[in-house]
Amino acid sequence: MSLKMAAHLRHLSLLGCLYCGVVLLSSASCQPLEVIKLSDTNFEHQTQAASGQTTGHWCVLFVDSSLAEDPWQAAAEDAWHTMAEDADKATVMAKVDLANNRGLAKRFGLSSMPAVLLFRDRGMYAISLAGVRSPDADKLAAAVTAFVEGGYEQQEAAAVPGEPTLLDAAKEAANKYIKVAPNPMLITGIISLGVGCVLFIGFMGLGIWYAMPDKPPRQRPAAAAAAAEATETGAPAEAKPAKAAVAADAGAGAVAGDAGDDEAEVVRPAASRATRRRA
């Protein structure tokens, strides 16, 4: 008896699971699709616009909530809600409020609202609404639907700008700070630091120049030899020039003596010849 009860309970649990699944599927199919709201923080994560676009095709409407009274923007938002209910699952309808997400406006270079961009096939297509002459939601929906279903093929895809990095944000903040609110103290400090570095280098150069030893006076070769000999023997350097002069005189005398001997030898043969003639 217990085995039969367990089997019945299993059958009832399976039937209950199937019933719940059918109810959930029916409710999901009856519930209309909604426009997905994107922002600076979740745009790239949701769309993967610059990183492969593996989440499907995205048709994004860019609006500015501060221009809520603009008839074109109001008509575009109504058209987006209409298309979200009937759109193909391959195309996701999304919206961005640039009043609170200025980063996306700068990233995609958007200046006029409303603006529409289609992201598909790893490219970006700008949808022009110039063909619609009046701000009518049905006409806007028809124009955008025609573009999404094949009109984009007549336009060359543009490269999707990458998501700004922390370095780009830091550069932008620094440039904005310098242009908008320059700090006088910072500028004065930089100028003072530059002047201080120049003065420091100048004074260091003067100090090195004064600290250099004076060059000794240039000496003649004889005087230099005498000075070197005086250094070796320990004798006063003043006596060496005198010794050099005495040595020079002695050399001159020796040369003169040799010259006198030669003259004497020349005179003697002449005297002997004169004596022979007299004899």
Give structural notes:
The protein has 279 residues and is an alpha/beta fold. The protein has three domains: 36-164, Glutaredoxin, CATH 3.40.30.10; 167-210; 223-278. Helices cover 59% and strands 10% of the residues. The chain has helices at residues 2-30, 43-47, 71-86, 102-108, 137-149, 166-180, 184-211, 221-233, 239-278; strands at 36-38, 57-63, 91-97, 115-120, 123-127. The chain has a five-stranded mixed β-sheet with strand order 1-3-2-4-5. A hairpin with a 2-residue loop joins strand 4 and strand 5. It starts with a helix and ends with a helix.
Mean pLDDT across residues: 74
CATH class categorisation of the largest domain: Alpha Beta
Order of helices and strands: HEHEHEHEEHHHHH
- Within the CATH hierarchy, at the fold level, what is the topology of the largest domain? Glutaredoxin
CATH architecture designation of the largest domain? 3-Layer(aba) Sandwich
**Main sheet, how many strands, which sense, barrel?**
5 strands, mixed
> What fraction of the residues are assigned to beta strands by DSSP?
5-15%
Gyration radius from CA atoms, angstroms: 54 Å
Biggest β-sheet: strands ordered side by side in the sheet: 1-3-2-4-5
* Tally of individual helices: 9
Number of strands: 5
Name of the CATH homologous superfamily of the largest domain: Glutaredoxin
Task: Outline the low-pLDDT stretches.
Answer: 22-32, 237-248, 262-267
Structural class based on helices, strands and sheet pairing:
alpha/beta
- What is the helix fraction of residues, given as a range? 55-70%
Described by the principal axes of the CA atoms, the overall outline is elongated
**CA(first)-CA(last) distance:** 191 Å
The figure for the number of domains is 3
